[in-house]
Automatic annotation (TrEMBL), chain A:
Keywords: ATP synthesis, Cell membrane, CF(1), Hydrogen ion transport, Ion transport, Membrane, Transport
Family the entry assigns: Belongs to the ATPase alpha/beta chains family.
Function: Produces ATP from ADP in the presence of a proton gradient across the membrane. The V-type beta chain is a regulatory subunit.
The protein, known as: V-type ATP synthase beta chain
GO biological processes: proton motive force-driven plasma membrane ATP synthesis
PANTHER family attached to this UniProt entry: V-TYPE PROTON ATPASE SUBUNIT B
Residues annotated as domain ATP synthase A/B type C-terminal: 366-462
Native organism: Demequina lignilytica
Domain ATPase F1/V1/A1 complex alpha/beta subunit N-terminal: 22-80
From TrEMBL, chain B:
UniProt keyword Magnesium present: no
Highest taxon listed in the record's lineage: Bacteria
Protein name as annotated: V-type ATP synthase subunit A
Keywords in alphabetical order: ATP synthesis, ATP-binding, Ion transport, Nucleotide-binding, Translocase, Transport
Originating organism: Demequina lignilytica
CC per GO annotation: proton-transporting ATP synthase complex
Amino acid sequence: MSGDGRAPSWAAGEPRVAHRDVQAIRGPLLVVGGVDGVGWDESAQVATEEGVRHGLVLELDGDQATVQVFEGTDGLVPGAIEVRFAGSPLRVPVGAGWLGRVCNGRGAPLDGGPPVTGDRLEPVAGWPMNPVDRDPPHEPVLTGVSAIDALTTLVRGQKLPIFSVAGLPHLALATQIAAQATSAGTRFRVVFAAMGLTHADIAYVRDRLEERTSSGELVLILNAADDPAIERILTPRLALTVAEHLAFDDGADVLVVLSDMTNYAEAVREVSAARREIPARRGYPGYLYSDLASLYERCGRVRDRDGSVTIVPVLTMPAGDITHPVPDLTGYITEGQIVLSPEIAARGVYPPVDTLGSLSRLMRHGAGARRTRDDHLDVAAQVLAALARARQSAALAELVGAAALGETDRSYLAYREELERELLDQGDAESRSLEETLDRAWTALATLPRQELTMLSPEMIRAHLELPDEGVDDA
Amino acid sequence: MDAVSASPTPAARVGRAVRVTGPLIEADGVPDVAMGEILRMGAGGISAEVVGVDGARATMQAYEYTGGLRVGDPAAGTGQPLTGLFGPGLLGHAFDGLMRPLSSAPLWLRPDRPGDDADGIRSHRWTFVPAVAAGDTVGEGDVLGTVPTTGAVEHRVLTPAGCAGTVERIAAGEVGELDAVARVSGRDVHLSERWPIRRPRPHRERLTDPVPLHTGQRVLDLFFPVARGAAAAVTGGFGTGKTMLLQQVAKWCDADVIVYVGCGERGNEMADVLDDLGRLVDARTGGRLVDRTVVVANTSNMPMMARELSIYTGVSIAEYFRDMGHDAVVIADSTSRWAEALREFANRRGDLPAEEGFPADLASELAAFYERAGRVTTLGGQEASVTVIGAVSPPGGDMSEPVTTISQRFVRAMWMLDRDLAYARHYPAVHWSGSFARDAAGLARWQTVHGDPEWAQRRARALEVLAEADRLESLAEVIGVSSLPGRERVVVLGGRLLREGVLAQNALHPNDATCADAKGAALLDLVLDVIDACHAAIARGVSATALERVDMGPVIRAAQDGGPEDATAIAATRERMLDAIRRVS
Ligand SMILES: Nc1ncnc2c1ncn2[C@@H]1O[C@H](COP(=O)(O)OP(=O)(O)OP(=O)(O)O)[C@@H](O)[C@H]1O
Ligand SMILES: [Mg+2]
């Protein structure tokens, strides 16, 4: 995905002193000597015969600067390159000019259009938001995906990751969310950043998001598997910087989808290894938590301002291990998680969400009366409690045989089947309204004996299950 | 201006930065540079603390983003350690790790924002009510006067440590935040005091007999209690409920002052704490809970070394209120993020790592932090305390990792959150077998003296049932519960009733968010009596199946039936249930 190789115009900056004293090249790092007056975290350009690469100052020691090169150092010859420092941290233009564009992981166009320009330049690292200016998230983002909207509601300003395993349809789900998500009554925008995806996957993403891109609601930033790995460190920051300004300056509700964060973390590990840092767990640096937090914490809402940034990171758990540092540290930063499960996928359910292992920590603020629907939180709690019970019945059935089960246990097994068919299983391009989603949940609950519905008030049960003209009790 | 910051800067002591890598800076040539001194770096003057001196070279940790800082930039000595301004403007407000007010800071926290004493920020006027008159004699720690604040916490201005004698002058009425309010034997005493953030504040002596801190969380108060002035830790993997539990304690515990330190955690959580506390009413005083709370917020995306500092900021603020005679609680979420900041810096410095890359002095750092907890006699002769409650976030939920194992050694109570319980939505997911309370015996004595001699026995019995139920349940998983003898099936049933009726507590239910001691004891008695009645029924020849068919809903819902203080409704439920069980045949 290196695009046409042209550097984005905003990266050019003004001409500066050229440094030729490259003393070492180590992994993605360059050590440049004879440096004077260069600031830490300053951006740099590395000119080679083929073109310009981009970097950042990671360390200054006397007259030496260590520079991390986003495009990697492959093919660099110490005597044949020139390094120029920009006098400022890496900045990108922000503004509506990004909408409808398809760019590579550094922001250079892939859609044949001109380089993206903007009203002004902003540092890609962003600034921490003053916590007292945050408005606690309390309004839903509706994705049109029943398993999420009903049971793990996404809330504007939340960070809610998708934990998956290689081979599961997380990209289908991520693109479905990106294509369908809306917020009632506000402008909704999407920034989709791909890190280290195969070309087949990238073609799939572009295809699935074509419509929303061409209608000018979506930005695609694509770093492919064969693009420079270190570029992946830049890609999510670019996406978030663009998103922050669409949200907090232009007042849009912005959803940022980042896929796949495992590839991102590997790029961080690669830089750390090249710096010979002491690793914490499984070779990942001890600062991976803070590094990931510097991305995920850029979500939120601001008091007395329109707009929000909601982040859905997608990651594949190596060997399905949730204690692996990438999902583990992500879970420590995000506000819940949506877990996909191979067993559920094997039953033919899409999206294969492990509803019991998934949780949206902010759901209680963003769903229910005045947010979604009065019965929402109770229905969700009942669906999950009954599902947990159904799992016990299924385990018992394995032990004693389904035939030996009591009536209640059998009704729970029937409930689970109905729930999967009615509510959880869905087309990967099917968008359901919240009304439809919750009504489907009621349909599934109707398979249970009424006295099992302990979390629902009698009035609710009457309103939803005992009025034939409601048309929800016909299952 | 107060005395310290007004002191003239000594002749400029300026060196040059020679190395910059993230938060680590090295500088050469600052004359007489001292460990712990704050240097101002570069044109922006960002704060960096000296953590190592080697000849002419000083190593520093920077408290701001160091982007743009260059080799050769000036490093100016201040001659001062890092200090914070301790005064009446703390309660009800939020500060960053460096104790700068966040309410007056801009939306985006850039490094070049003003410090805590910039013009305007400290312009608030207060009313000083003198407690002594000119000519009186005072000793250190004695109250010179009070300052009415929004909440119920009496703000007392004390005679500073090391100061005693005759009151030569005393103010009355309106004073500014930085003004002097008294003169005691030749020394000005200010309304607000500048104090080195890392330095423990002095007290007279430690008190050792344990007095409980009532938390309002049944699983803690009944099973794993914490004493005032003790240290406790809550540990568990992500999403197991550490923050929710700490927030519950912050809301409902019976301390006077809460210092809530968000150390490397989420911004949305800090917003939530401020929002929640601003809305909730303090049942003990009728005021808003936020008015007894100070928030120190250094979220995960704020500068890493300020996160390291924020823990000390929190404890020092708590000690400041302790010295006034109050019981303060410091809540630190999460100490693991603080340990990670220590590790990050030690690694950049090239220190030899010990376990998992953590520096070798991690254990002593953690111990020193937890040791600042204590119930003491203050310099002014009052009994007061600082209780420290920290969260520990073990990577991968692995309880054998260094921060967890070290914390375990130094805390008096450890609350172990269990992923399976949280997964089953059993909250608070405090596990009864992994948790401990070292002061349980001492606190049982306190309960005996204060009218509840049954406390220890009730606890022991319940823990016994829980342990046996656990064992039998794993057995039942293999052979089926119906293969167990009747007595054992009652134990399994009893375990479930204890878990669902007593231990589980719904933080979101207005009747259940907090729980008075009497109500907790009544609930536990209810379940234990129901278990006894079931055993008696089995002895009578009643089948376990028949007992399992009894609707135990009233037992499980008893906690939510009446208000947090209401133990009488539970007694009625008890009679009804015992009667129902007696009638089973
Ligand atoms: N006492 C409780 N009552 C109701 N729900 C709870 C309770 N404790 C935890 N939960 C649920 O679990 C979620 C996670 O809890 P919490 O944020 O406290 O976890 P944590 O251990 O602090 O996680 P992390 O380490 O990621 O910060 C909450 O958002 C809530 O949905
Ligand atoms: Mg937490």
